[in-house]
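User: Can you fold this complex?
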Amino acid sequence: MKYSVVVVDDHMLLSQAIGGLVDAFDQFEVLYLCKNGQELIQQFKNNKNIPDVVLMDVNMPILNGIETTAHLKEHFPDVKVLALSIEEDEMTILKMLRAGAKGYLMKDVKKAELQEALLEVIENGYFHTNTIAKILVDSLRPKEGSVANLKEREIEFIQHACTEKTYREIADIMCLSPKTIEGYRDVLFDKLNLRNRTGLVIYAIKNKIFKP
Amino acid sequence: MKYSVVVVDDHMLLSQAIGGLVDAFDQFEVLYLCKNGQELIQQFKNNKNIPDVVLMDVNMPILNGIETTAHLKEHFPDVKVLALSIEEDEMTILKMLRAGAKGYLMKDVKKAELQEALLEVIENGYFHTNTIAKILVDSLRPKEGSVANLKEREIEFIQHACTEKTYREIADIMCLSPKTIEGYRDVLFDKLNLRNRTGLVIYAIKNKIFKP
DNA sequence: TAAATAAAGGGGGTAAACCCCTATTCCTCT
DNA sequence: AGAGGAATAGGGGTTTACCCCCTTTATTTA
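Assistant: Here's the predicted assembly.
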């Protein structure tokens, strides 16, 4: 009796390569491959070919891994999602786990580790490496300079600050006074130990608050 | 008679997956896998196990795909490098081809296309998709706003501008007058149709002139 | 209930960035 | 030989960003 798996990755070669690898595992068979989340959800619509596990990339066009995982958790809660991505930043990992992923693997794992992860997810419902566990613990008490310390409005301001807009323009958009915007800036410079707006932009991109 | 291939990629799972895929092609066999350029060059040192083709990723630690390809071209010119990467920006592709790669595939190709590319590289010495050919043609006459239009000193300035340094500090480092730095800035704003320094930073990151 | 914190906003001043124009020297091209 | 372009640099002015301090109102916490 083999467990069924579906691979979702926008890079066709990676889907085919990883699919071939998993299909070679004794206890697993790959049903089909998908290029993005939308394609997967389309496959699920006829309520056929629903796998036990989905190997999910994160960065995909149309419907990304986070959105897709959240959708599956709501509509197909028995399907277990195992994230498999190159992205290693905390924010992405936490978003993926919050969306409902049962585990998160980076693509630098070995073939044997992938097999173990698949089995663990089937048998115990989840698989968390040491790395992921540490990130989870850290998210309980975010350290200084962490994105987790930022308020929603601060993040909104930062996203605007990563554009060519002046503070006056940003104030208009956020329905605040320019003086309030300056206050936001000052608080952020202090929280994140930054010197100026350029530093803020670099920080935002590094931490995926803004995507150029 | 099978042609020999080596896969170089820092993501172990991808190496193993793609290696398995290629090993299944009739005319090819995978000798071994490497995690980075340094490991590959180490394998070549004893002049054994030198393959016909190397499937090379670009972003790798210690010795990246560009550096490694340039090294192979000089010391092992009979070895054909076929780039295989997620990176799709022109600058990276052109750097890889200039370093001596015989072809550049994105990871969204199909398994069959990879096989065809490998065969073409063996038989004709190179394999260039339509996409790559267009990038090469465009590099002959770079369009407005293109990175190819930038002088070496301008790029150097941009890299400094992507830090928290003031123009005075950048001037000191580049041994120029602050007024000259302002001149650089003005020319760049004009060339790239930008409004301010924040715009320049975003442009630089998008075009891989600066990596956060 | 009172104190502390959060959210928003103000004053005043300095530093830096931006904008537009001009100039000199050296190198390249016709 | 002379014209044109590249690289570097200056003047002067305006706009924007930064810095530090203070205030009010609403919400949260002890």
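The CA atoms of residues 73 and 134 of chain A lie 24 Å apart. Chain A touches chain B through 36 residues (CB under 8 Å).
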